[in-house]
UniProtKB/TrEMBL annotation:
<protein>
    <submittedName>
        <fullName>Uncharacterized protein</fullName>
    </submittedName>
</protein>
Amino acid sequence: MCLPATTPCTEGGECCEGLECGTTSLGQVCCGNEGIGCNTPNGEDCCGALLCIAGVCGYDVDAACEPPCTAPPALLVEKQRLATIGGSFLGICGDANHTYGFHVPAANLPDDDYSMEGAANVPVCEWHAAAIDIGMDWPASRDWLKWLIAGIASDEIQGIAEVIGSYDGVNVRYWSDSSGWSMDGKPYQGSGHDTWTHVSVYRSTTLEDHGILAGWTANGGP
């Protein structure tokens, strides 16, 4: 007989289908990961930092739209997923060195900036930044990048404008709709991005969940 949610456990195999042996405010108990049904008001049946939102384990994100720069829901949920994985979060809103591109809110950019081109980049909030930098310091991170590119190429993952990263920590590649989503990508002409991956979403999709890190743990993914 399997153990239901919130029951103390020692290993995942003893928990009922869809649950795993994880940590909640109750201690080490059977609990649900993201997307699993729940019914406790405080999220005691959801693992880790997940909350019980409308009957499903998930992350609670702020939908604010404020100057000088706001991290949007689409990327805040990825930031929380990354924290659960244990990877380094390197930023969403750009610093003073970012003068163009998706890390900068539309309100602070000229209309001819490349990250403002096309209907897909009409912003839902002019103060949203639309890119996240994900540290590649977790064991499965390079496998994750390959999975991400394959998912975008097959349209299983949508709304992604560009990706800059490296499969091996040395050879940095660039992908976008204009350059193509082949697994090899194009040589990146800028600097950095060997120890982190840059992912931009279209500005019209900053309220949507793209599933960039969904289903991944430090050691593997879907």
